[in-house]
Design brief:
mainly beta; disordered N terminus; twelve-stranded antiparallel β-sheet; 31% strand
Length: 232
């Protein structure tokens, strides 16, 4: 049986924060650039204060309606969902599929009908504006939105029940760049993306990033075995 997962275009961690007045800020998330790349880290959790950052990169091309997310070996995404300690990549194509590409070259259609989100996906999701928040991991002042209208609440006793997103606050030269995207649930932050805001490069992406071997596009991924829960 495949491990259940929650889905959104991206993800965020609810770090220790300070809510301030909302009156002087736009309550609409800044759209993504049309084409860009940006680095991030995952495997950060607030539960036991353990931080083992694993690198990743997001390549986004609305020009080609494509997106690629690379995760380095050891990431929560690769281990938990694909049962591999190697690297893994998620490739979203204009055909509407999300493809899984593992470090050993194994490729298959993981999820159908999951396409690349448009640059203004966050505003379209009609999120609730949570105000100005200090992001503890990046040490940046940010604006936060909660996607309580995007999906049903996810049952969790350790963190917010909805996806959230944070962007650099207007007072910063890099205002509007994504800082954090979170998944709710039992990963407790390890699946969330903490973006390196100074690493964003705006511009056309290499088309080869979104090119898959032809057989891959027609091969569904096999079910993944249930991953046992650690007891020690």
């Amino acid at each position: 049986m495949r491990t259940m997962r929650t889905l959104s275009p991206f993800v965020f961690l609810c770090a220790v924060s300070t809510i301030q007045s909302n009156a002087s800020f736009s309550q609409t998330p800044t759209p993504f650039p049309k084409d860009f790349s940006i680095h991030f880290v995952t495997n950060i959790t607030e539960v036991d204060n353990k931080q083992y950052p694993i690198d990743g990169t997001l390549y986004y091309s609305w020009s080609s309606k494509s997106q690629r997310i690379d995760h380095a070996p050891g990431s929560y995404e690769c281990i938990h969902f694909y049962n591999t300690t190697s690297s893994c990549s998620l490739v979203f194509l204009p055909t509407g599929g999300m493809y899984r590409l593992l470090g050993d070259g194994n490729c298959c259609l993981d999820l159908a009908h999951i396409g690349t989100p448009p640059p203004d996906w966050a505003a379209r999701a009609n999120p609730t504006f949570a105000g100005k928040v200090h992001d503890g991991y990046s040490n940046l002042d940010t604006l936060e939105w909660i996607f309580d209208n995007l999906t049903a609440a996810f049952t969790s006793t350790t963190r917010l029940a909805h996806h959230t997103t944070r962007q650099v606050a207007p007072s910063h030269p890099l205002a509007g760049i994504p800082v954090l995207f979170t998944f709710p649930g039992n990963a407790n932050g390890r699946q969330d993306y903490h973006f390196n805001v100074t690493s964003m490069i705006v511009g056309q992406q290499d088309p080869s990033l979104f090119r898959l071997d032809e057989p891959c596009e027609n091969v569904p991924c096999p079910p993944q075995p249930e991953i046992p829960t650690r007891t020690t």
